[in-house]
């Protein structure tokens, strides 16, 4: 999917919501556990109830890898279900990969070719030759951690090298890499006060913004400081939506939570036009 297609979907749905599919078998409704593939059945019900309210889904691969082969199969079925039924929806494998070049190429093949995700998250720590193999894939997007939502972000990311915060070095340096127009960046919603500086470095890039909902990030502040003239934001909520209820009404309750966020987004978008 191209960024133009993503932007047009945002305009069509008046939404830049990304729903995180972080499935924890201890948190999903008990009646699903009797089914052959509870993880996929949970995802399918959430997707059916919310697809008209969001433009992206983001399974975090940790929640699938934790269940071994059956978890990986559920991830595969989920992405196939999305691509077959909702090809207009942007898909993100939140896997935070990155390694020496030949290994990164295999990670990229796993997520872009085998699983056919539109994008994958990567960690910048190993530098240019660990990320360029992902960027080599046409019409795919590589979403690099810039300033994360957790408190540990202050351990390294905001520390200064030559009087400049490390996350700024990450943003500036990555812009020089081959096919850097295929990069997007992760910036936590809990770091709203940093968005103005970040937009000075990457004014046109899409930012994936986790941390709204369960982590307490503020949607209005993120929009105020992080939005560009193409919107340029994908705001993620996982637990705040998918675990709105752990009873038989889980999908409709998830849809209610997604609707609240979509309506807030629509109100923001109206002020732009
Ligand atoms: O800085 C980051 C990077 C990734 N995440 C991931 O996003 C979701 C957030 O889930 P919530 O339940 O909405 O808090 C989860 O998969 C994280 O691993 C992040 O939170 N912060």
TrEMBL record:
Key word Hydrolase present: no
A biological process term (GO) from this entry: 'de novo' pyrimidine nucleobase biosynthetic process
Catalytic activity: orotidine 5'-phosphate + H(+) = UMP + CO2
Transmembrane parts of this sequence: none
InterPro entries in the record: Aldolase_TIM, OMPdecase_type-2, OMPdeCOase_dom, RibuloseP-bd_barrel
Pathway(s): Pyrimidine metabolism; UMP biosynthesis via de novo pathway; UMP from orotate: step 2/2
One annotated GO molecular function: orotidine-5'-phosphate decarboxylase activity
EC number per UniProt: 4.1.1.23
A Pfam short name: OMPdecase
Domain Orotidine 5'-phosphate decarboxylase stretches: 16-254
Keywords: Decarboxylase, Lyase, Pyrimidine biosynthesis
SMART domains registered for this protein in UniProt: OMPdecase
Family assignment from sequence similarity: Belongs to the OMP decarboxylase family. Type 2 subfamily.
Name of the featured protein: Orotidine-5'-phosphate decarboxylase
Species this protein is from: Bizionia saleffrena
Encoding gene (name): pyrF
């Amino acid at each position: 999917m191209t960024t133009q297609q993503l932007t047009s979907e945002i305009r069509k749905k008046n939404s830049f919501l990304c729903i995180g599919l972080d499935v924890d078998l201890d948190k999903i409704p008990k009646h699903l556990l009797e089914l052959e593939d509870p993880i996929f059945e949970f995802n399918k019900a959430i997707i059916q109830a919310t697809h008209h309210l969001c433009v992206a889904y983001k399974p975090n691969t940790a929640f699938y890898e934790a269940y071994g082969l059956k978890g990986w199969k559920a991830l595969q079925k989920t992405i196939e279900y999305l691509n077959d039924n909702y090809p207009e929806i942007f898909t993100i494998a939140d896997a935070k990969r990155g390694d020496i070049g030949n290994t990164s190429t295999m990670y990229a093949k796993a997520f872009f070719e085998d699983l056919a995700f539109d994008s994958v998250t990567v960690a910048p720590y190993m530098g240019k030759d660990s990320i360029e193999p992902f960027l080599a894939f046409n019409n795919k997007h590589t979403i690099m951690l810039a300033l994360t939502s957790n408190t540990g972000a202050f351990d390294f990311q905001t520390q200064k090298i030559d009087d400049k915060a490390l996350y700024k070095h990450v943003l500036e340096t990555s812009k020089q890499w081959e096919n850097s127009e295929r990069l997007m960046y992760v910036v936590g919603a809990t770091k709203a006060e940093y968005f103005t500086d970040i937009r000075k470095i990457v004014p046109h890039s899409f930012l994936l913004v986790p941390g709204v909902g369960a982590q307490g990030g503020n949607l209005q502040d993120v929009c105020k400081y992080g939005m560009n003239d193409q919107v340029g934001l994908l705001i993620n909520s996982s637990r705040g939506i998918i675990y709105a209820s752990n009873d038989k009404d889980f999908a409709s309750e998830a849809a209610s939570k997604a609707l609240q966020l979509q309506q807030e987004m629509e109100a923001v978008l109206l002020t732009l036009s």
